[in-house]
Amino acid sequence: MIGRRALLAASLSTAGYLVLRTGRGGLMSSAEAKADEGMVTVTLYDDAGKLLRVAQVAKVVKSDQEWRAQLTALEFAVTRQQGTERAFSGEYDPLFAPGLYRCICCGNALFSSTTKYDSRTGWPSFWAPIAKTNVRTSVDSSLGMTRSEVACVECDGHLGHVFDDGPPPTHLRYCMNSASLKFIKKP
Questions:
Q1: What pTM does this model have?
Q2: What is the pLDDT of residues 21-39, one digit of tens each?
Q3: In the listed set 58, 78, 97, which residue is the last one of a domain according to the structure?
Q4: Burial, 162: exposed, middle or buried (Cβ in 10 Å; 0-12, 13-18, 19+)?
Q5: How far, in Å, CA of 14 to CA of 54, rounded?
Q6: 137 and 163 in one domain?
Q7: Which residues pair with 55 in a beta bridge?
Q8: Do 108 and 21 share a structural domain?
Q9: Which of 103, 106, 152, 175 is catalytic?
């Protein structure tokens, strides 16, 4: 959870950023305003999982060609084409080491090992993201059913789905694809 001080710091950082962007209190140019439309709010964490701050960052936008050059075929299929890896095939399903799970596409902090649990579904499952600001959900009506898709807020990479059959305290199951994550072992 983010405390009052962190929110105040984020607000002041944003205000400072806007003052710097507008230059001596003037108005932003139309190009600057368009660039700001591509900004998102994320909560930043170091690799040990320590909260750093809430910040406005530029949304990561790349062409399919650029994503293909960066990702493996499976990572591209899952994150950029809303695919799903086969159950029990992902490297992170059986992993329960302490650490942080980041987005394979952009490095955004997504989940902590402290919220990971064995859902026995064949995919890494978490009862909460590391910060609600770092993921977004949307309705997924594919495959003849309605589900809640989970994506990285910073790059729109598909991560998996969230269901309401998880453990306390949230009773949610963030069912993620290993191919969408990069595990950083706690130092």
A1: 0.79
A2: 333 333 433 333 434 569 9
A3: 58
A4: buried
A5: 9
A6: yes
A7: 42
A8: no
A9: 175
CB atoms within 10 A of CB 105: 24
Backbone angles phi, psi at 152, to 5 degrees: -70, 130
Annotated active-site residue 175? The verdict is yes
Q: Are residues 79 and 49 in the same domain?
A: no
**The tokens 């990285």 sit on which residue?**
152
Are both 34 and 76 inside the same structural domain?
no
Q: Is residue 130 within 8 Å of residue 110, measured between CB atoms?
A: yes
The kind and range of the H/E element at 16 are helix 4-22
Looking at the structure, tell me whether residues 79 and 47 fall in a common domain. no
Tokens of 6: 């962190």
**Domain tally for the chain?**
2
Instruction: Give the tokens for residue 62.
Output: 């790349």
CB proximity list for 17: less than 8 A, separation 6 or greater: 56
Length of the chain equals 187
pLDDT digits (tens, 9 = 90+) for 152-172: 999 999 999 999 999 999 999
